[in-house]
């Protein structure tokens, strides 16, 4: 390593029942892109929160450029040149880009000067962004640019990025990587958390691997295979999902001529969507985020009502039924946003198990909640899906992102759905857990469930789906068999070339 920017010496942080970081030591060099790898709950977020001043270590020290460094709050970290782009953006939809950036500054300059600075940084780093656009109109990739530019305006020495590419299209990933290369060339160090191992192999100079809160290895990603890195993370050999031949049954889900406005002012209306899914079939829905994915989940879950006949479950019109009635009939859904939508953050896992499992798991009797049965259901989910938590009485909020995702998906899978609709089932989930979730969806289909998997991970869809369709501005392309489908064809479908007749990508 050239010069050391930041050294971590024996950092330790414990939460009740778990040592999230156990005696962690490593160094980050000046101008180094350093990957932080580890399965869900390994302690990556806890570690970067200590570096960014959000969490105080129980013991251990840090040195920044040879000086003792112990930020009491993020403001102190920023003053020392540490910036962080979070997985979840904290932007106000109704304000424009410059106003959002000004809100995060201690002494914002006049708006006109700030807009000029934003333009300058955006051009220098190849991140196209208009300072006067309303944030609500921006794609996920553009919102991330707002966060990155906000960081770059502080001229950081270390930029921490938590899963930056999970919301990006392949093209946007290329743009981001060019920006990061440029920053590295200028001597900025980058600490990069991601579960996407091929990206880490392309981008990162070195990687530190955490398991159960401890450093278990270091490697040079360019010289290590993705499989070897994944196995280092989990400490055992990885299983590839098995796709057994499946017999398809009758049409379980039938969407025809479905149009629906979005409940959100910045959402996307669905336009004349047609789709049938047979029993035992997995249909993958791809597309760039914000093209109607959430709305599609909403019309299937019953949160958005439509004409009765626009959605049919095993022949029965259900478009006007609410979520509870649909659940009772066997149509289950797992939305994308884990905290808040799929799970209530402050409730225990037992309470969260009750939330969607009450009807099908028979957890209510004569108006009374059956707490013992609910707890037993939560324990079954934890066991079957290897959810890392001290127990079902813990709040959903205390789980790491990936572990909560396993819980949310497991809760629906174990209820034996007739039709299961999932949105981004493996978002933020490590390689081993993602493989387990995909295998669970394949097993479910093998038992005759019709599965709709909405995902931005095209590799995932190609791995598990029988047919593929893409959402573009609320329209769904004609589904095609995934066998023999090329990347170019997928790109055209995602870009809105419906039926392949026009290629206005
Ligand atoms: N505020 C908290 N209270 C209690 N436990 C916590 C808290 N924050 C984290 N933990 C626990 O600490 C451990 C490490 O969690 P952390 O979020 O750092 O993992 P991670 O590697 O970032 O996981 P992921 O990839 O799933 O985001 C987990 O077991 C988690 O449940």
TrEMBL record:
GO cellular component: plasma membrane
Main location class: membrane
Keyword Oxidoreductase: no
Keyword ATP-binding found: yes
Bilayer disposition of the protein: Peripheral membrane protein
Keywords, ordered alphabetically: ATP-binding, Cell membrane, Membrane, Nucleotide-binding, Repeat, Sugar transport, Translocase, Transport
Domain of life assignment: Bacteria
Domain ABC transporter residues, every copy: 6-237, 253-498
Subcellular location: Cell membrane
Gene Ontology molecular function, alphabetical: ATP binding; ATP hydrolysis activity
InterPro entries: AAA+_ATPase, ABC_carbohydrate_import_ATPase, ABC_transporter-like_ATP-bd, ABC_transporter-like_CS, P-loop_NTPase
Pfam families tied to this protein: ABC_tran
Protein name, as recorded: ABC transporter ATP-binding protein
Lineage: Bacteria, Pseudomonadati, Pseudomonadota, Alphaproteobacteria, Rhodobacterales
């Amino acid at each position: 390593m050239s010069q050391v920017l930041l050294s971590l010496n024996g950092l330790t942080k414990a939460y009740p029942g778990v040592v999230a970081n156990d005696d962690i030591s490593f160094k980050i060099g000046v101008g180094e892109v350093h990957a932080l790898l580890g399965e869900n709950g390994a302690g990556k977020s806890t570690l970067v929160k200590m570096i960014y001043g959000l969490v105080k270590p129980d013991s251990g020290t840090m040195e920044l450029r040879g000086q003792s460094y112990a930020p009491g709050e993020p403001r102190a970290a920023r003053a020392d040149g540490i910036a962080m782009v979070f997985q979840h953006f904290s932007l106000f939809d109704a304000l424009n880009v410059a106003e959002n950036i000004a809100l995060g500054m201690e002494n914002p300059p006049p708006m006109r000067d700030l807009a000029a600075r934003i333009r300058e940084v955006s051009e220098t780093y190849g991140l196209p962004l208009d300072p006067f656009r309303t944030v609500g109109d921006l794609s996920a990739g553009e919102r991330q640019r707002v966060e990155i530019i906000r960081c770059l305006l502080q001229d950081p020495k270390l930029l921490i990025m938590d899963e930056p590419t999970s919301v990006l299209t392949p093209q946007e990933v290329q743009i981001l990587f060019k920006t990061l290369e440029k920053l590295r060339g200028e001597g900025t160090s980058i600490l990069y958390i991601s579960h996407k191992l091929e990206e880490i192999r392309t981008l990162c100079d070195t990687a530190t691997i955490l398991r159960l809160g401890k450093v278990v290895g270091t490697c040079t990603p360019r010289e290590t295979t993705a499989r070897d890195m994944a196995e280092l993370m989990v400490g055992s050999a990885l299983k590839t999902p098995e796709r057994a031949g499946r017999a398809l049954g009758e049409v379980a889900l039938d969407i025809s001529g479905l149009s629906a406005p979005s409940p959100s002012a910045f959402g996307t209306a669905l336009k004349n969507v047609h789709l049938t899914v047979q029993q035992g079939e997995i249909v993958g829905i791809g597309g760039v985020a914000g093209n109607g994915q959430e709305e599609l989940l909403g019309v299937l879950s019953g949160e958005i009502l439509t004409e009765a006949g626009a959605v049919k479950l095993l022949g029965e019109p259900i478009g006007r039924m609410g979520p509870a009635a649909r659940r009772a009939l066997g149509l289950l859904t797992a939305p994308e946003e884990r905290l808040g939508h799929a799970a209530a953050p402050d409730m225990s896992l037992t309470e969260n198990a009750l939330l969607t499992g009450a009807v099908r798991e028979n957890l209510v009797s004569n108006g009374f909640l059956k707490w013992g049965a609910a707890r037993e259901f939560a324990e079954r989910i934890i066991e079957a899906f290897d959810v890392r938590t001290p127990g079902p009485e813990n709040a959903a909020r205390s789980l790491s992102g990936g572990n909560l995702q396993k819980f949310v998906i497991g809760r629906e899978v174990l209820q034996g759905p007739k039709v299961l609709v999932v949105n981004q089932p493996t978002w933020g989930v490590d390689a081993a857990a993602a493989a387990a979730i995909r295998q669970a969806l394949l097993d479910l289909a093998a038992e005759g469930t019709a599965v709709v998997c909405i995902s931005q991970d095209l590799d995932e869809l190609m791995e598990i789906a029988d047919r593929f369709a893409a959402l573009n501005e609320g329209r769904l392309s004609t589904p095609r068999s995934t066998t023999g489908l090329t990347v170019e064809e997928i790109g055209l479908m995602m870009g809105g070339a419906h039926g392949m007749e026009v290629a206005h990508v």
